[in-house]
Amino acid sequence: MNKRKTILEISAMKQQQEKISVLTAYDYPFARIMDAAGIDIILVGDSVGSVVSGYDNTLPVTMEEMIYHTRAVVRGSEQALIVTDMPFMSYQASVPEARRNAGRLVKEAGAHAVKLEGGEQMAETIRAIVDIDIPVMGHIGLTPQSIHRMGGFKVQGRQEEQARKIVADAKAVEQAGAFSMVLEGIPSSLAKEVTAAVEIPTIGIGAGADCDGQVLVIHDILGLCDKYSPKFVKRYADISSLISQGVSDYIADVKAGEFPTPDHSFK
Ligand code: KIV
Questions:
Q1: 46 lines ligand 1 (CB under 6 A)
Q2: How far, in Å, is the centroid of ligand 1 from the Cα of 76?
Q3: 182 lines ligand 1 (CB under 6 A)
């Protein structure tokens, strides 16, 4: 059995200029496949709400859902570091509640680290969770749990004042003790500046090529979710067509009485 990646190894990858690969997974079969393929980090993202549960955004996702999906991903993986998103309102109301919920994701679900959204305003919360030895991945820039403040999923940091705020957020997240941070939906030049300004790895999504690693939602890269097709997604496969073909062939076989054959039947 392979040894799991640790946050120390992930941190060292920045120094060694080795890019960090991250994908989301929400269940056992996907975790098994991407773990065997050698992914560095599996993120059990609250994007599960959009791509698996069919919600319009991530806000309705609950702690119970994150625990359920994380357990499946942990069971399906051997070598990847598993990071789980703290869902909306599991960490915003108070620092003690944030600590308790981060603890549940580690103790009950088996996550190795948690991710939460926010910069300077979340520094105290990040510090409190790190202080109980739970590694934290930050997430700044376009933060999907702030959809109502942002007025939609819009690129952040295009204006100078906003860009300065994002650099300040990155430094606050680092100083609070996070081991890495996601930079989402910001101009590539700003992501490059942030990546140079902090010592911890930056993981980009819609943030250009200069981040220390990249993360994408697995359903997006495999063509499993055609609800949105963001500019930053590269599609590596078209699984929807394969599923559709398989299901259509099955229906046709059943209707024509061609399935099951004696090969699929018991004597
Ligand atoms: O929930 C998620 O999948 C995420 C990534 C897109 C960074 O937060």
A1: yes
A2: 19
A3: yes
Task: Please give, one letter per residue, the 3-state secondary structure of the chain.
Answer: CCCCCCHHHHHHHHHCCCCEEEEECCCHHHHHHHHHHCCCEEEECCCHHHHCCCCCCCCCCCHHHHHHHHHHHHHCCCCCEEEEECCCCCCCCCHHHHHHHHHHHHHCCCCCEEECCECHHHHHHHHHHHCCCCCEEEEEECCHHHHHHHCCCCCCCCCHHHHHHHHHHHHHHHHCCCCEEEEECCCHHHHHHHHHHCCCCEEEECCCCCCCEEEECHHHHCCCCCCCCCCCCCCCCCHHHHHHHHHHHHHHHHHCCCCCCHHHCCC
- Return the pLDDT at 227: 72
Q: What pLDDT, on the 0 to 100 scale, is given for residue 133?
A: 98
The CB of 217 under 6 Å from ligand 1? The reply is yes
pTM of the full structure: 0.97
pLDDT along the chain (267 residues), means of 10: 89 98 98 98 98 96 98 98 98 98 98 98 98 98 97 96 98 98 98 98 98 98 85 95 97 98 96
The reported pLDDT for the residue numbered 29 is 98
